[in-house]
Give the backbone structure.
Amino acid sequence: FKLSYYNEYKSYLRMESIRAVFRGDDQDDSLIDGMDNTCNLSWEHRLYAFGACCVIGIFLSIFGTIELWLTQYTAFALLYSLGTLTALAGTCFLRGPMSQVKKMFDKDRLISTIVLLVSIVLTIVCGAVLKIAILALLCVIIQSLAFIWYTLSYIPGARTAVKSCFSGLTGINCPC
């Protein structure tokens, strides 16, 4: 009977440590930050919502890529970019929307966030408006690399490890 409570408590502590990572250390009680705390979803449901957004985003991007091969450039640009935005929006379930937006524009993520958002817009413009497939594809590559670099910024030491691997493989010091 006591072992059951102990195991539940250990599980609760593990989930609290995961929550603390996504909440960040700089929580304050301003009105804007209070908006993040109004969500009535449990932590488990937030994880499910995050996972669902990521899976939906991946499928949208895959369907967009299929549209590229069918020469449907407008559908390609819109679906691929919508997939990236959906996956990005999923992170709002983990931290809360206002906290996530603030973290996106931290000095550590500012450049990758701007490159990501600009490349999403350019993908849509090149694919849907200009209908130039090669430019849309170039923008998708930039968009994907920016999304990976942005995501790595949340993993301590990940960017440094990737830079070291790049330097070791190519002999070129990464300036980023």
Q: What stands out?
A: Residues 57 and 84 are 6 Å apart (CA to CA). Confidence is low (pLDDT under 50) at residues 26-35. The first helix runs from residue 2 to 23.
